[in-house]
Design a protein that fits this description.
about 140 residues, single chain, Rossmann fold, alpha/beta, 6 helices
């Protein structure tokens, strides 16, 4: 299955690790190529830019549309939601949009960890997510 791996850029290392695990499970993971450079520290310009003005980097590199195209070209998405900003299993605004992109394009939506209950849009996430994996990638069918 072609699975687009999504989540906060703050967790680029974890996203790359999950990408590799999906490969080992026989899936065809998809992820923006810059995530690998962010994870290993070689994408210095992007890392510095994200720290200065993340919105400007998103515009300059057309990240929202690039992620949209990855989502539409795949079969499913895997949202890698980890604790962030004091919220368990956080899902931010950008990732919420990506879940919406997948939903309206009839892509299967997997959530790595349970739905964050502390965000005001938890109901919207619940309405769109197909499978909560509870951290177990083997549950992807």
């Amino acid at each position: 299955m072609k699975i687009t791996v999504l989540g906060s850029v703050k967790f680029a290392n974890k996203l790359v690790e999950i990408y590799r695990q999906l490969e080992k499970l026989g899936h065809e993971p998809r992820m923006h190529e810059d995530m690998f450079g962010i994870a290993d520290g070689t994408a210095k310009e992007l890392i510095d830019g994200i720290n200065l003005d993340h919105s400007e980097i998103k515009k300059k590199h057309n990240f929202i549309k690039l992620w949209y195209n990855l989502i539409v070209g795949g079969d499913a998405i895997l949202v890698c939601n980890f604790d962030k900003k004091g919220i368990k299993n956080y899902i931010g605004g950008n990732t919420l949009m990506e879940i919406g992109f997948a939903h309206v394009n009839d892509k299967k939506i997997f959530l790595l960890n349970p739905i964050p209950e502390e965000v005001p849009y938890a109901d919207e996430i619940k309405a769109m997510v197909d499978v909560v994996l509870d951290g177990d990638l083997n549950k992807i069918g």
